[in-house]
Amino acid sequence: MKNSKESIIWLLPSIFILVILLMIGTCTPRINDKFLVVKVRRENLEIFEKIRGKAEAKDLIAIGIDIQMGIDEIYFKEGDKVKKGDIIIKFSDYKQNDVDNQMKNKKRILAGKKSQLRFLEEEYKLGMDVKNQLQQIKGEIKAIEAELGTIVENDTLIQRNVISPVDGYIVKINAVKGGTNSKNLPIVLLVKNRDMKIVSDPVKLSRNEYLNVGNRADIENIMVKGEKVPATLYKINDTGIKELKTLEFLVNSGKDFKLNEIFDIYLYYQKSENVLTVPVSSVVQKKKGNESKFFIYLINGENRVTEKEIYLGISNGEKIEIYGKDIKEGMEIIENPNNKLRNNIIVKRRSLQEEKREKEEKLKKLKRENDRKEKEIEKNKREIIILEKGERND
């Protein structure tokens, strides 16, 4: 009997603890609302803006001709890619033939004048009064030699072809087939393959306070999605319209671009690396005394909720940087909290599959409702037509 009493006494604390646990379990508030659950992640968080731009020439190579020449053929057009040694323009033979004829004519006249000079010099030696004639003929010879020198210089300027000195793109051709070039304009403007800049369309940016020369960007060809190339903002241009800017970017790699190639530009304002992030929708702001504080709701394996105060960093609109005491990567939190949540409450989890099914059901319902309304509208239109016909017949 004594042993039985002692056994009961020893069991009493365990029974008491069990009763307390049962009471706690039955007293813990529960709600039937279902919540999506996500994990705290560790990642790089970037704030960026997407704009559109195109490849333009940065440093130009000008090819000019100091004499006018006829254009016989133009083998490329503006924007075309050329290789070093490619013939861009072929000149006609007219100028060369003209210069050759001028040179022959001047040489013939010069030979005649020199023959006259020798004759006069002989007469002068014999005592003839030809001093004035000698001075005149010498002056004429000197003038013809100067003219012949100019013709020879022009002859060296005459080119058969304009040849590309580099691998690159044609920016401008100031000539037309059958016409002549201007001595005051470069006949061809070129840009090397890698002397390109990316220039944005005029844009009004949402975060001008973070816009600075040196900001990092990625550029992506609109026709080749997924291949991004790093670039750097190096120039900010006013457009003459308030708050509207064009931005110029230098590409950080040796990649070649086509002139006027179109790009999507991802301009980064801020970047935090290796930080804890959560969806913006998971953060709740509450008034605590005179202060506004921010909270997330942790959820454990038993679906019990714990309200946790956090501090915020940067946000890209979808994700937000958070930090706080005992916040760790991988913690499960509620993505779509509401005002029913509080400490120690037990909730139900909502799976992504459920979310997807509900969205699909909602979409089907909206489509059915839309079809029904369209049918009603068509019915009303037919009745209106019938009534209007009846009025006209009356």
Characterization of the model:
This protein has 394 residues and is of the alpha+beta class. It has four helices and 20 strands. It has helices spanning 2-27, 94-125, 131-157, 352-393; strands spanning 30-39, 41-57, 60-63, 71-74, 81-82, 87-91, 161-163, 168-173, 188-192, 196-200, 216-221, 228-238, 245-251, 262-279, 284-288, 291-299, 305-315, 319-323, 332-334, 346-350. The strands form four sheets. Strands 2-10-13-12-11-14 form a six-stranded antiparallel β-barrel. A four-stranded antiparallel beta sheet has the order 3-9-8-5, with no helix packed on it. A three-stranded mixed beta sheet has the order 19-1-20. A hairpin with a 6-residue loop joins strand 11 (216-221) and strand 12. Helix 2 runs antiparallel to helix 3 (131-157). It is elongated. The model has no long low-confidence stretch (mean pLDDT 82).
Strand order of the largest sheet: 2-10-13-12-11-14
Tally the beta strands. Answer: 20
Strand content: 35-45%
Shape: elongated
Helix-residue proportion: 25-40%
The helix/strand order is HEEEEEEHHEEEEEEEEEEEEEEH
- Which structural class matches the secondary elements? alpha+beta
Largest sheet: 6 strands, antiparallel, barrel
Distance between the termini: 113 Å
- Our Rg estimate from Cα atoms comes to 44 Å
Mean pLDDT: 82
Helix count from the secondary structure assignment = 4
State the low-pLDDT regions, or none: none
How would the blueprint of this fold be written?
Elements: H1 2-27, E1 30-39, E2 41-57, E3 60-63, E4 71-74, E5 81-82, E6 87-91, H2 94-125, H3 131-157, E7 161-163, E8 168-173, E9 188-192, E10 196-200, E11 216-221, E12 228-238, E13 245-251, E14 262-279, E15 284-288, E16 291-299, E17 305-315, E18 319-323, E19 332-334, E20 346-350, H4 352-393
Parallel strand pairs: 1-20
Antiparallel strand pairs: 1-19, 2-10, 2-14, 3-9, 4-6, 5-8, 6-7, 8-9, 10-13, 11-12, 11-14, 12-13, 14-18, 15-16, 16-17, 17-18
